[in-house]
Amino acid sequence: MADKYLYGYLIGRDIQVDVINHRVIHFPKGKGTKIIRMLYLRDTMMRLLVFLLKNSNVRIISYNEIMMNVWEMYNLSSSNQRLWQVLHELENKLHSIGVMKGFFSKIEKKGISVNAGVLTTLYYIKI
After folding, report:
1. Could you tell me the pLDDT band of residue 19, with boundaries at 50, 70 and 90?
2. pTM score, whole prediction
3. Domain total in the chain
4. What is the CATH number of the domain that holds 112?
């Protein structure tokens, strides 16, 4: 059997997260407007998004775990303030292209949960 590799994620039916190219793309479905919108995310913001999506099966992803895996493993300084700043900016960017508010839920003093019910993981196979 061929190995499968992470390509990205589908949020809902029309928002694709392209991990390799650091893009989030909104492909509208149905009739009406057909404007495709796209975001390009910087390294840290994309790492944060991917880490949250990869761990969406965990009920609550702890703040310490996020800071360790998104910042500290890359020799970057982390803090709660920096996490909140990047998360807030990420949420605003995602909302601007159609991701529903509340996709991420902040659980005070614990961590973040992701609405995994609208998430599909996308893989590719090298042939």
Report:
1. very high
2. 0.91
3. 1
4. 1.10.10.10
